[in-house]
Amino acid sequence: MCKIFDAHVHHLFEMPIEDAISIFKKEFPLTKTERQAFMSLPNEVSSSGEFYFDEMQNIRMLFLKYSFSPTAYAFAGLEHPLNVWQEDGEKLSKNYLRQASEYALAGYDGMKMLEGYPSMRKAMKRPLCDRVYDRYYAFLQENGIPITMHVANPEENWDITKADAHAISAGRVYDGSYPTRLALLDEVDGIMKKFPKLKLTLAHFGFLSYDIERARAFLDYENTAFDTTPGGEQLINMLSDWDEWQKVFESYQDKIIYGSDYYAFPMDESWEENFLRRPKFLREFFETDKEHTYLGKKFHGVNMDRKILAKIYWENAIKRLGNPKRIDENYLLQKAEDLLKIDGKRAEFADCDLRYIIQTVGCNK
Ligand SMILES: [Zn+2]
């Protein structure tokens, strides 16, 4: 049926960007993905607990946007120093503001934040509503720049007796040394109290399928939204109280945005199954009234009203983001030149990608 605006696409697999582009070119038509927003993740915590920085994430997302123009968007991520928890707050605060304005001028359409991921939040030590972010949020609010933020994780990840085997093996089980899910949500409230007009989208429905009243309270702010990215699995949880959740989808039909955590999967024998898994789940859930299985869990599709669905799949993202911002090609080239001079970058294929970016953008200018 309808065309799709996937507002939550990543590129994290180790492969040259040229290959990722050709895989995305095959994948997008097969899922009717006509617009897409690439989400950058510059800092992460590895499964062994190391807080790391990937120099290539922001430039790769901007170049993916460039490659899929005019239908694509890019969200930058803040680049944190590796000793971020020891850094002087005032210095960091200015750094974050400088980055936000740099990215806005360069042609990014928004900011992606993984800082609310439990392991990131633990490593970084500062609350999401800390003063250190105030200038940054104020700038985004003032300029209507959207943020897509990952906050918390599925509730069962805080209980080793309930967490699924995959979460346990990936180190996504949280003891008392991590902030709790509710503490993280309180920090989001702290942001919204200071910046009530912020265009804040929580990915994965904010992992709020356990707490419908809190979900409503978050959506009651003027410019907040959820994206539908699977995780945990929020939509299947909602089925246990679907009559009430359906009312949420109806009341807040302008504030729910399709996103699937889409990737260019390596083109091995499981390629099709892998890249289709999440989009297929979302579409079976929303568009059918039949029984299906997702990651071993049975669920029944909700056959969502088509007008609401068109908003979720397309119109809401278009309203929020407008047309993609113009990319500053000189910035993209300069960034690539600068990064090429840095040794020991974390990502594989970094220099090969940078040369490809310089060649492609340089030739088209
Ligand atoms: Zn994601």
Task: Please give the structural blueprint.
Blueprint: E1 4-9, H1 17-30, E2 33-39, E3 43-45, E4 51-53, H2 57-67, E5 72-76, H3 89-106, E6 110-116, H4 118-124, H5 134-142, E7 147-151, H6 165-169, H7 181-194, E8 200-202, H8 212-219, E9 225-227, H9 234-238, H10 242-251, E10 256-257, H11 271-287, E11 291-294, E12 297-300, H12 306-321, H13 329-340, H14 350-364
Parallel strand pairs: 1-2, 2-5, 5-6, 6-7, 7-8, 8-9, 9-10
Antiparallel strand pairs: 3-4, 11-12
Helix pairs in contact: 3-5, 13-14
The structure holds zinc ion.
Zinc ion is lined by residues 8, 10, 39, 203, 229, 261.
Write a brief structural summary:
With 365 residues, the chain is of the alpha/beta class. The chain has a single domain (4-364), classed as TIM Barrel (Alpha-Beta Barrel).
List keywords for this structure.
365 residues; alpha/beta; TIM Barrel; two-stranded antiparallel ribbon; 14% strand; binds zinc ion
Give your account of this protein's structure.
The chain has helices at 17-30, 57-67, 89-106, 118-124, 134-142, 165-169, 181-194, 212-219, 234-238, 242-251, 271-287, 306-321, 329-340, 350-364, and strands spanning 4-9, 33-39, 43-45, 51-53, 72-76, 110-116, 147-151, 200-202, 225-227, 256-257, 291-294, 297-300. The protein has 365 residues and is α/β, with parallel strands linked by helices. The chain has a single domain, classed as TIM Barrel. The strands form 3 sheets. Strands 1-2-5-6-7-8-9-10 form an 8-stranded parallel sheet. Strands 3-4 form a two-stranded antiparallel sheet. β1 (4-9), α1 (17-30) and β2 (33-39) form a beta-alpha-beta unit. α3 packs parallel to α5 and α13 runs antiparallel to α14 (350-364). The mean pLDDT is 96. The structure holds zinc ion. Zinc ion is lined by residues 8, 10, 39, 203, 229, 261.
